[in-house]
Amino acid sequence: MNKNTTNKLKILNDPVYGFIRIPNSLIFDIIEHPYFQRLRRVSQMGLSNLVYPGANHTRFHHAVGCLDLMQKTVRVLRVKGIDISEVEENALCIAILLHDVGHGPFSHALEHSIVEGITHEEISLKYMYQLNEVFKGKLSLAIDIFTGKYHKKYMHQLISSQLDIDRLDYLKRDSFYTGVAEGNISSDRLIAMMNVVDDELVIEKKGIYSVEKFLIARRLMYWQVYLHKTSLVAESVLVKVLQRAKELAQKGEAVLASEALNYFLRSKIDKESFDKNVLKVFSQLDDFDIISAIKSWMNHEDVVLSYLSKMIINRELLKIEMHDKQIKNQYILLIQDKVKKQFNLSDSDLDYFVFTGEISNQAYNKEQPIKIVSKKGTLKDIAKASDQLNLQALSKPVTKQFLCYPKKLI
Amino acid sequence: MNKNTTNKLKILNDPVYGFIRIPNSLIFDIIEHPYFQRLRRVSQMGLSNLVYPGANHTRFHHAVGCLDLMQKTVRVLRVKGIDISEVEENALCIAILLHDVGHGPFSHALEHSIVEGITHEEISLKYMYQLNEVFKGKLSLAIDIFTGKYHKKYMHQLISSQLDIDRLDYLKRDSFYTGVAEGNISSDRLIAMMNVVDDELVIEKKGIYSVEKFLIARRLMYWQVYLHKTSLVAESVLVKVLQRAKELAQKGEAVLASEALNYFLRSKIDKESFDKNVLKVFSQLDDFDIISAIKSWMNHEDVVLSYLSKMIINRELLKIEMHDKQIKNQYILLIQDKVKKQFNLSDSDLDYFVFTGEISNQAYNKEQPIKIVSKKGTLKDIAKASDQLNLQALSKPVTKQFLCYPKKLI
Amino acid sequence: MNKNTTNKLKILNDPVYGFIRIPNSLIFDIIEHPYFQRLRRVSQMGLSNLVYPGANHTRFHHAVGCLDLMQKTVRVLRVKGIDISEVEENALCIAILLHDVGHGPFSHALEHSIVEGITHEEISLKYMYQLNEVFKGKLSLAIDIFTGKYHKKYMHQLISSQLDIDRLDYLKRDSFYTGVAEGNISSDRLIAMMNVVDDELVIEKKGIYSVEKFLIARRLMYWQVYLHKTSLVAESVLVKVLQRAKELAQKGEAVLASEALNYFLRSKIDKESFDKNVLKVFSQLDDFDIISAIKSWMNHEDVVLSYLSKMIINRELLKIEMHDKQIKNQYILLIQDKVKKQFNLSDSDLDYFVFTGEISNQAYNKEQPIKIVSKKGTLKDIAKASDQLNLQALSKPVTKQFLCYPKKLI
Amino acid sequence: MNKNTTNKLKILNDPVYGFIRIPNSLIFDIIEHPYFQRLRRVSQMGLSNLVYPGANHTRFHHAVGCLDLMQKTVRVLRVKGIDISEVEENALCIAILLHDVGHGPFSHALEHSIVEGITHEEISLKYMYQLNEVFKGKLSLAIDIFTGKYHKKYMHQLISSQLDIDRLDYLKRDSFYTGVAEGNISSDRLIAMMNVVDDELVIEKKGIYSVEKFLIARRLMYWQVYLHKTSLVAESVLVKVLQRAKELAQKGEAVLASEALNYFLRSKIDKESFDKNVLKVFSQLDDFDIISAIKSWMNHEDVVLSYLSKMIINRELLKIEMHDKQIKNQYILLIQDKVKKQFNLSDSDLDYFVFTGEISNQAYNKEQPIKIVSKKGTLKDIAKASDQLNLQALSKPVTKQFLCYPKKLI
User: What is the pLDDT of residues A206-246, one digit of tens each?
Assistant: First the structure.
């Protein structure tokens, strides 16, 4: 027995994959960094747990899950004769580990209320630069892969494309924790079918049905889970709560919040102004700040704020109607009118209780095709290789309109 | 504790569903009957275990799995207010339990070599009549449901339709035992979404994605598993072996076989001649007769028979080419010519080693639509309800041609 | 199709059991009550997610899981001839649903720092009385079963005994979410083996190995998961943080906290003083209050509070030593001395950084035996029925000592 | 994409582990050899499928499962600094792949009726020598490891010891296919805990509960599955059938059987006479020979043979009584007397219908201890390291007596 062996901390239990091995001490130290530990307090699926009570897994778990899949992918590609150096493997691992580190609390929902005009990918990149300083340049190659600057283009595709490691993990993991078994995909098989041709990530021909299955599963997860109408109304109300709080805060009214949340309520942060100092405050922000604030706002004297806050905490949400077509203005006006009278609301407050929105999903994006390689080595877009499924139809974005308003309308 | 209670034999372990409860002693006695016990010796997936080594489950297990799902279905429908009497429940259970009892060894492959012009469903019905005599008329209602004579039409749809209990079990079970996780379907969710409207079995609207997923999973199982090219060539060779044995037997040559197999090799049995006595012999036939005979034929003096037999037993099969289009005659002739010379074969024997075939699968059959019911109670064909997936495309049968010939052709 | 049928809200997805059906509208309304919804914000396993990142499931999910198992149990017992009325079934469901409703945030860890001298079971009972008022006496029978007053004694055993529904769910669920597959138990089989003899809950003889397996699995979960040394030190530090905050608060210093937490920091609540009003405040308390407060305390000017708070949030915990025997005083003194000097601490502050504790687990409690019934109906304590496993040895409580102190001691 | 890469045949689907990779072409060719392919026709669990209908997996699947676990084990040990060369890895893989190749049909049951005084391990070794000739000496190191001659003793322990790869696979696999979830073990965790100290295979201390769990799971599988009373009586009757057939054959009576089975019925083969030629005949023998013969014997004119044969095929077995203590002679005589009269049997034939037997299982064998290594590197027998479980008690062999006789005794 070699003495300096397995640090027990280097293996993590994962109900999805069994064990996840942390390959080396640099990656271990990145995971230990408070910037990464914060992800333990950011749920992967926002308020979906109001519908699927098992969906409490975190971005932390998703990120280390991606790390695991990336290691498997590198092993598969090497067996197929693709040359990947240890340095490159490490960079791929770091890039996928950090690809989502910029997510704020409740993820997507808050991208447009806490900050404005800056995506979580851009914030992830800011984190990477910051960590690259901490770790003395050891993240440079990971950053080049993440930003698509590295000459091996397929490595970027592993991080970000229609069939990237991110999707392979989150679909499998979200399906597992929600218990929506039909969203389950075989990440192992998809990885086993990966190859690289002309510096492009491709899928071998016998994996064609698995790719189709993956696209259908992803679509099912979108409509059945991610865009489930109860999650949707919950996240919409959440955005409204924060908008209201921000409105009050910026008028100078007292709005109880953690220091970090308070900062974002009182400031207007966009891409320009999001500098190192903002990043530091942002790093203190997680789901706990938001929920705690909303809990305290249940007793706020502003009726709009308190009413919306109670909706979230007690799970007594607005009613939501889904429409396949544009909702008629007349109908909206009718509802607005009723609500206004029944609840005695001003015009400006009305928008917090009656509002519309749009959701959209595109099952397949032809702009960034998934490529299938035949035994002879020729490449084909899956949308053409699969003549039966009509992926052409699947590439048309599907859009739905929704309308929210109080239940118990007389 | 009531003394005369749970007979321990009335629960079966099932790795797929956990426990299967046998609901009463009539059904227990049917299962105990040698006609049903025979299914323990008929594999569900024929020679697929040559590709998927875990696929050794039997028709017995599939049938009791269906029994379990049928009980769950009845429970769900009753909760939704559908009135199903105990007598009807029992008949449904018996009908699904026996729906496949007429399968011969290696199922589909032998439907056209052992017997001719009679389907396994027709043989199942013969078994039911026979068992109805044994059990003194207690199977009459089950038979009526099975044959579609019972006035509640939806009950027949539970036994036989595009979304019947049979498919819900075999897809899940075959996916489980092959390890092709992507074929897994959520039978529980599909059952939970079932309802009955205007005496038709329908799926509630929120189950629409699950139905799509089910259709895609089934299609994947067809192309990836059931019609896997190695299974295909194995089953084709199996048919050839039996044809050759039959040819020799009918010429009066000695062909070692069990009594039952011998009977079918020497007789021409079709729908007309398949009477009670034939049924009795048929009941003695299972996978063991076939494999044992083939093992003995490995040393038969007829070179064609011995050569083909070795292919099956030692898993040294013919080469198979799959083509999307009609294979050119010229190409086939070329191959035939080569094989004939290299192996020194007569024209008539050549057909055993070089042959073509066709496989086909239709993911969705518009003739017997799966109907979706909206909240308001209106019915729609899934092919219309699902505007995105283009089920229209999926209803076009897909056909492939294949060509088999010896490996190691010079 | 009956129109007033399945309210879609009455089925919950559960990755562990598939679907959980909420049997009726009374139970549905109890679940919707804010008292019960609070459990969505109380994690089942406290800080175990610092070791097992998947362990983020909540007390809400555990409680509805119990509801599911209780329904299955009633179904099994009825098949065996045990007479259980619908009213009783409902009461059993409510009793198990609410058995843990009195848990505070981070459960056990905080039972002795937030409140004193009152157990979570006692608080659960207070909730039940309160809800009984809300629901106009419909919980009375559930309360009688919960408190053991109902004349059918075995019903209380289903709620609370060595093999109660609570354990059947939490062991399975915790094993599932941690990914410690070895803790998995077959709740279905154990339930299938249940029976009632002389008003006692018993296990049929053929379930003897399953009971043994259950006891071993539970023991494994204790030592490997619940008492994992990293969880242990995390929860110990958590208690210390709250003690320090309470100390400061009661000295009159400013300690940021939610209104509810603030109340408990500033008051001394014990069994006597825990009245309706306290219950109301308690109902506003969950994991979010605690973690948010600790996050804010990371910058508190009290060095002890801030230092301990950072330990939790950044997962940089104290070192922990486990000992099988009593730890020698001399050794503790040595450590204390070192820490005091190195960190320049006062005697009273030292206790926050160097402390000992004891953990204990008893795999089997002979005082409340699990009884096995033979085919002839005679009862035996499992400890005697299982002659091989030596359950006698398993009934000896195992106790370990631990010592915590700062890492990086010179 | 490197052209000469992944031969698609080199990955096998396994529902238990996902994918199994065949590491190189030598091992691929061994698997393709008819000697190994035969294992596809030998069921792993004999007649257990009469009780557990899912248990139809084969020795082929078990052997390739072992191959998979061995590769994982080598990977783990290398990470811990144990030096294993590629040549050694390959030998380990071959040794575990072939460790059971000598099993005859229905495994253990027939070890003493088809052949005598030679174990399946000895036959496995004969196969290895034979294959070593075929593969020109490439199996020599595997043979040395298998026979314990190689100087690295721990490698033999991986092939054969109380915690060998064989057990890690068969317990997990048998639990999976029977659906007895409680027998499930975490082979991955046990492998992750393996190490080598002083040339001994050891388990790291934190794996102690997993080892205990493994021992309990194994014991449960023995009593609940492998020695289930219905399997037991089925296998006992199977042995009786073959004894009777042998008796008749050796008297010169006609007994229909395949050529290979016929050979063994008419000859007396023991260790001495089991030479190359016998091995060749043995290689043609599998489950299909046995079941086909028994099916034909159902109509044999010898009443004893036909009656016993029907028992197996129609699953109408003898009654079996299990006793913890020696069964009293008087009681046996009483039964014998009744049966003799009721069925009008001669004294010598009586033994085929009334017989006793003994089964025994030892949960832990102290002679070949499982060793636990502490962090400091000291070794301890698990029986001592685990003070709570009383493994001492588990090392006492448990023995049960059984008595079989016809049902429906008047």
Answer: 898 889 889 989 989 998 999 999 999 999 999 999 999 99
Using a CB-CB distance cutoff of 8 angstroms, which residues of chain A are in contact with residue B181?
A: 184, 186, 189
pLDDT at C4 over 60: no
- Please name the residue that has the structure tokens 């009980």: B71
CA-closest candidate to residue A397, choices A362, A373, A353: A362
Distance, in Å, from the CA atom of B104 to the CA atom of B125, rounded to the nearest integer, reads: 14
**Domain assignment present for B205:** yes
B345 sits in which H/E element: none
CA atoms within 13 A on the CB side of D297: 33
Enter the tokens of residue B361. 């699968």
In a domain, A271, yes or no: no
Percentage helix, strand, coil for chain C under 3-state DSSP, each rounded to 5: 55, 10, 35
Residue B34 pLDDT greater than 50, yes or no: yes
Q: What is Dmax (Cα atoms) for chain D?
A: 78
Q: What is the pLDDT of residue C117?
A: 84
Statement: residue D6 has pLDDT above 80? no
Q: For chain B, what is the domain count? A: 1
The answer to whether residues B398 and B361 touch, using CB atoms and an 8 Å cutoff, is yes
- Return the exposure string of B222-246: e unless at least 16 CB atoms fall within 10 Å of the residue's CB, then b: bbbbbbbbbbbbbbbbbbbbbebbb
Find the closest chain B residue to C373 by CA distance: B1
Distance CA A47, CA A110 (A): 12
Give me the residues paired with residue A358 across strands.
A401
Tell me the sheet residues that pair with C358.
Answer: C401
Chain B, residues 176-235, CB within 8 A of chain D, namely: 176-180
The answer, yes or no, to whether residue D393 has pLDDT greater than 80, is: no
Does any domain span residue B92?
A: yes
Task: Report the residue of A216, A227, A359 to disrupt the B interface, i.e. the one with the largest count of B CBs within 10 Å.
Answer: A216
| Strand-pair partners of C203 | C194, C372
- Write the DSSP string, A87-130: HHHHHHHHHHHHTTTT--TTHHHHTTTTS-S--HHHHHHHHHHH
**Three-state DSSP class for D311?**
helix
Name which of B64, B66, B68 is nearest B32 in CA terms: B64
From CA A4, how far away is CA B378, in angstroms rounded? 69
Residue A387 has pLDDT above 80, yes or no: no
pTM: 0.91
pLDDT in tens, B53-87: 999 999 999 999 999 999 999 999 998 999 999 99
User: What is the per-residue pLDDT for D346?
Assistant: 92
Q: Which residues contact D119 (CB under 8 A, 6 or more apart)?
A: D102, D111
> Are C53 and A32 inside 8 Å of each other by CB?
no
- Let me know if residue B136 belongs to a domain: yes
- Burial of residue B6 (CB within 10 Å: 0-12, 13-18, 19+) is middle
Contacts of C396 in chain D (CB under 8 A): 388
Tell me the two tokens of residue B87: 């007598």
**Domain interval for residue C202:** 8-228+370-385
Chain B residues touching residue D52 (CB < 8 angstroms): 13
Positive or negative: CA dihedral C203, C205, C207, C208: positive
Residue range A155-200, pLDDT digits in tens: 999 999 999 999 999 999 999 999 998 888 889 999 999 999 999 9
Tell me the per-residue pLDDT of C262-295, one tens digit each, with 9 for 90 and over: 999 999 888 899 999 999 999 999 999 999 999 9
Give the pairing of strands B200-204 and B371-373: parallel
d(CA C139, CA C134): 10
The answer on pLDDT for A5 being more than 60 is: no
CATH number assigned to the domain comprising residue D135: 1.10.3210.10
Query: Distance, in angstroms, between C243 CA and closest chain D CA?
Result: 32
